[in-house]
Design a protein that fits this description.
Number of strands: 8
Strand order of the largest sheet: 1-4-3-2
Shape: globular
Structural class: alpha/beta
Mean pLDDT: 96
Low-confidence stretches: none
Largest sheet: 4 strands, mixed
Helix content: 10-25%
């Protein structure tokens, strides 16, 4: 069993696509119209184009807003991405105007940082022990 697809609710799919591709460096995989305004919109890691897809899903369901608002209020990231160097990504992304809610924090062999994805979510980046 493998994870093929996971989703992340976003306030605006066009803005999310721009942020996730132009700032984070993901690559658009699928972009299929669904209904009048929504899309089946997925991105993948540029390093693993055949890897796990991230669905940038419209946040229209009534349960989404209170759920995400509670997570953001408590500083809890909704997803985590692995990077080679958290400090370098923090510097690169900060220079692009990304707002971090947690600067790089070293916890033993793992370093993490948390940022606002501009689409309603907090995202954590981390390095994993070698």
């Amino acid at each position: 069993m493998r994870i093929h697809l996971t989703s992340l609710f976003v306030d605006d799919q066009a803005r999310a696509l721009e942020f996730y591709t132009e700032v984070l460096g993901f690559v658009k995989k699928h972009d299929v119209p669904v209904g009048e305004q929504d899309r089946w919109l997925t991105v993948v890691s540029a390093e693993e184009p055949g890897g796990t897809e991230l669905l940038l899903e419209p946040a229209g369901h009534p349960a989404v807003k209170p759920y995400r608002d509670a997570l953001v209020e408590d500083g809890i990231p909704l997803a985590q991405f692995t990077v080679d160097d958290v400090h370098a990504e923090y510097e690169r992304m900060s220079a692009l105007g990304v707002r971090f809610t947690q600067e790089p924090l070293e916890m033993g062999p793992v370093t993490t940082a948390v940022f606002d994805d501009t689409c309603g979510n907090l995202i954590q980046i981390s390095t994993q022990p070698q």
